[in-house]
Amino acid sequence: MKRAPLLRIMRLHHTSIRTRLLLAYAGLLLVGFAALTLVAGSQIALAARADYEQRLLNEAQLVRQGLSALIPAGEREFEPSESMLGLIAEYETHLNGAIYLYGMNDHENLLLPRSRFRDAPEIEAAIRGGLVVVERKDEQGRPALFTAALLGNPIRGGFTGAVVQVSVPLDNLQALILQRWLLLLLVFAGILGVTVAAALWVARSIIRPLYRLRDSALRLSQGDLAYRVTGIGDDEIGAVGKAFNEMAAQVQGMLEEQRAFASNTSHELRTPLTTIRLRSEALRYDDTLDQETNAQYIVEIDEEIKRLSALVEDLTLLSRFDAGRAELGQSEIDMVRLAVSLIQQHQAYADAHGLALTLAAPDTIIPIHGSLNHLLIVFRNLLENAIKYTPRGGQITWTIKAEADGVCSVIQDTGLGIAPANMEHVFERFFRADKARARDVPGTGLGLSLVKSIVDAYGGSVKIESPGLHQGTTATVFLPYQPAPPAGQPR
Fold first, then answer.
1. Per residue in 288-313, pLDDT tens?
2. For 360, which of 65, 157, 204, 328 is 20 to 30 Å away at the CA?
3. Range 236-320: architecture per CATH
4. Yes or no: is domain 328-480 CATH 3.30.420.40?
5. 328-480 shares the fold of 18-177
6. Residue 356's closest CA among 442, 415, 434?
7. Contact residues for 42 (Cβ-Cβ < 8 A; gap 6+)
8. For 18-177, which CATH class?
9. What does the pLDDT look like over 19-34, one tens digit per residue?
10. What is the pLDDT of residue 344?
11. Is the entire prediction scored with pTM above 0.70?
12. In angstroms, rounded to a whole number, what is the distance separating the alpha carbons of residues 71 and 335?
């Protein structure tokens, strides 16, 4: 017995959102309008009855006036004349009811026994000069409304003249109330139809963008990454559509980046492996090689192995930072001392190539917390890039400034610079701005990508700027004194 409601709920969950919205709107509107109709109908019925009773009182007054004009002046007792009876018949036809005339003396009534006369509240009220409407059954046992008016003047202990009693069937009032109920129900049906149509339109306007989102998701799942949702408006669903488009763009960018990464990685691995294979085969099978050539091939093999090792190490470190598995160091490191050490390591190379390598830093210690290996990777890459791409006679300046919440390092060179079209790609993996010199300049194209991953992991920022080709490059790195802890861990 208890499974039937559960089954109905399960079936409702399997229906479409549009159907559920329409049922919810229609149900709420039906309940609300039904309650409103019942309240309004009851009030209309009460107002119709009050209005009908007032009309009956007015008709009784008109009958009294018409009949009073036919009573001879000064008469205390009278018999109804032919003209009075004819006028009463006309009034009965007009009212669709019955009119009774009571003329009183000590022995008889014109129409009813005295006991019945005295039991009629409306007649008693008329004798006292008032007007009331009373509901009771008439002579045929049907529900009716009664009222009465005095023809004459009340006197102490009785009255003169006569009393006119007006009776109308209650069916007349009920027919009037039924007409008003029918009118109210017609209005209710019309409003309900309009509101249901509006609810259907609203449901369609809500569901149509959802269908477009569904179709877009299906096309995205089928590999159409360039498809975007359009024409979904600026409301909440439109915001979801925009977020979906942004997600699709990010997915497309990630997949394209992965394809490019796989292609570049295979190329970067294939080149040294090919060189190693050719040299090793020559050393193994070519007996005509002299000792000098053998030594040269061995040196080339060693250099290619070093290049492969550096590439694998960079890729491994990048994958750790991408996956969020890299451990951030908490060692206290003097930033000035680190910079002095790197400058000294590269000073000989700079002097040999006619480069002016200078450091502008305060004499005080600037401690930051991090991993020494990570910081060495960041600033060695930036410093070596400046040295590699600065021609003879150029200048490289490393400026270190302590700020309120971190350290700002600026490495500026007067080298080859970067074209504006390449600025947005400088942090892409394997990107080489000067492709023509890519084979002559050592490196894998992962340096700046690795720099950005490390700096971002420590809550810092890195920015590469260049006015254009042959106008130098400026690399700005900001690192906080204390890196932000991972999510969910206290500082």
1. 878 888 888 888 888 888 878 877 77
2. 328
3. Orthogonal Bundle (1.10)
4. no
5. no
6. 415
7. none
8. alpha beta
9. 776 677 677 777 877 7
10. 92
11. no
12. 126
3-state secondary structure string, the chain?
A: CCHHHHHHHHHHHHCCHHHHHHHHHHHHHHHHHHHHHHHHHHHHHHHHHHHHHHHHHHHHHHHHHHHHCCCCCCCCCCCCCHHHHHHHHHHHHHHCCEEEEEECCCCCCCCCCHHHHHCCHHHHHHHCCCCCCEEEECCCCCEEEEEEEEECCEECCEECCEEEEEEEEHHHHHHHHHHHHHHHHHHHHHHHHHHHHHHHHHHHHHHHHHHHHHHHHHHHHCCCCCCCCCCCCCCHHHHHHHHHHHHHHHHHHHHHHHHHHHHHHHHHHHHHHHHHHHHHHHHHHCCCCCHHHHHHHHHHHHHHHHHHHHHHHHHHHHHHHHHCCCCCCCEEEEHHHHHHHHHHHHHHHHHHCCCEEEEECCCCCCEEEECHHHHHHHHHHHHHHHHHCCCCCCEEEEEEEECCCEEEEEEEECCCCCCHHHHHHCCCCCCCCCHHHCCCCCCCCCHHHHHHHHHHHCCCEEEEECCCCCCCEEEEEEEECCCCCCCCCCC
Amino acid at 220: L
The 10s digit of each residue's pLDDT in 385-428 is 899 889 999 999 999 999 989 999 999 999 988 888 888 888 87
Residue found by looking up tokens 């049906």 in the block: 189
Domain coordinates of the chain in residue numbers? 18-177, 236-320, 328-480
Residues 6+ apart with CB under 8 A from 387: 346, 349, 350, 353, 355, 357, 396, 413
Q: Environment class of residue 274 by beta-carbon count within 10 Å: exposed (0-12), middle (13-18) or buried (19+)?
A: exposed
